[in-house]
Amino acid sequence: MTAYTRGAARLLSGAGLAAALLLPAAVPAHTADGGKGQELPAMPSALDADADCTPASRETAQKQDWSRQRLDLDRLRGHGTGEGVTVALIDTGVDPDASGLDGRVTASGTAADDCVGHGTFLAGLIAGTGGDSARLAGVAPGARILALRGTDTRGEASASLVAQAVREATEAGADVIAVTVALPRRDATLTRAVTEARGAGAVVVAAATPDPPSRGTDEIPSRLYWPAGEPGVLSVADMLPGGARPDNALPTTGIDLAAPGAGVVSGGPRGDGHYLGAGASAAAAYAAGAAAMVRAAHPDDSADAVTGRLTATAYPADIPQLDAYAAVTTVLGDSGASSGTERAAEPLSVRDTSSADRATGRATLFVILGSAAVLTVLWAAFTLPRARARGWRPARAGGTPED
Predict the structure, then answer these.
(1) CB count, 10 Å around CB of 151?
(2) Integer Cα distance of 4 and 373 in angstroms
(3) 79 is catalytic
(4) Options 33, 45, 67, 118, the catalytic residue
(5) Catalytic-residue membership of 235
């Protein structure tokens, strides 16, 4: 290798190293938590028969997750907190003393003992204050939670437990009933309980599917799950930051809304740490929180009108995407406000976090082009004086210009 070649190689290597050092600053890691790169323990929706209760998390989220940005919860705070509304949460129970829920949880029977932690996690999405992390508050941080158990202590759901919980929620006068478990078969007792709840004026929100099992879902056929499949129940599925359903989501039909359901951050029943959760249960919790906000902002609306408002103001897509801010603030026509069947003429767009990805792409392109420009200038500064000294003749093999 000639001296000239060696010099050029060193120059190229130096420029390449500079570009390599600059590029990671412009390209964030896209991880399972929606691109935020937060490493938190996962919150299970059920436990193995011999597993201990979910331990306290030692990790604390350092930033707001994508789901709260997508739902524009910071701006929603200016229009209320859901105060005066009670949301019945039917899951694994809720610890009344969990961080961010103190004083606003009523737990029926054994529902105060949440070994799994999943129900407490979801309660934080609905009505948590975020504790010391205010930007991790739920949708309706002023609402009350009525905790009811729809599962056994390990998180296994049953129709009889869910039906009993729906009846208790109806008797307690809950404004919103969130059923965040999903059953594979329709049950007559549960159907009657849901019908009675709707007749009493409750908004019933349900997970469109169970949370995905640990094994593959390719062999599981599409089917309706219950009570999401009942008439008048708002069926909510999970979505990724881009709006698509996760690859491992169970297939189903009859979905009314999609809401964030991947890499969602909330707390648990033990300690002040945070977890990552996913699935249609998280999406249904967000929708229930939005329903609580609508009920507080529009107290004269019927349950059907509340459900209709949530769907009418949703961001239009293959599966309409929950827009909590638009649901609370959009002025609907008289027929839409009373019956919930008319879509808003100009629904407000949800805050699409993909714009951050586009900004990152532009920054990356800028760095690449800038690095190329610097490389070109350095190459010219290195080669042109030598070429001029040779009279623009090629260098000899020894690397010195000819006489």
Answers:
(1) 24
(2) 21
(3) no
(4) 118
(5) no
384-387, Cβ contacts within 8 angstroms, sequence gap of 24 or more: 386/4
Rounded to whole angstroms, the Cα distance separating 199 from 367 reads 60
Identify whether the C-beta of residue 152 lies closer than 8 Å to the C-beta of residue 94.
no
- In Å, how far are 81, 331, 361 from 131, measured between CA atoms? 15, 33, 35
- Say how many C-beta atoms besides its own lie within 10 A of residue 266's C-beta: 31
Q: How far apart are CA 300 and CA 16, in angstroms?
A: 65
pTM assigned to the model = 0.76
Q: Catalytic site residue 99?
A: no
Query: Fold for domain 66-352?
Result: Rossmann fold (3.40.50)
Tell me the per-residue pLDDT of 274-312, one tens digit each, with 9 for 90 and over: 999 999 999 999 999 999 999 999 999 999 999 999 999
Q: Identify whether the C-beta of residue 141 lies closer than 8 Å to the C-beta of residue 129.
A: yes
pLDDT digits (tens, 9 = 90+) for 315-353: 999 999 999 999 999 998 754 433 333 333 333 333 344
Question: Distance between CA atoms of 259 and 46, rounded to whole angstroms?
Answer: 21
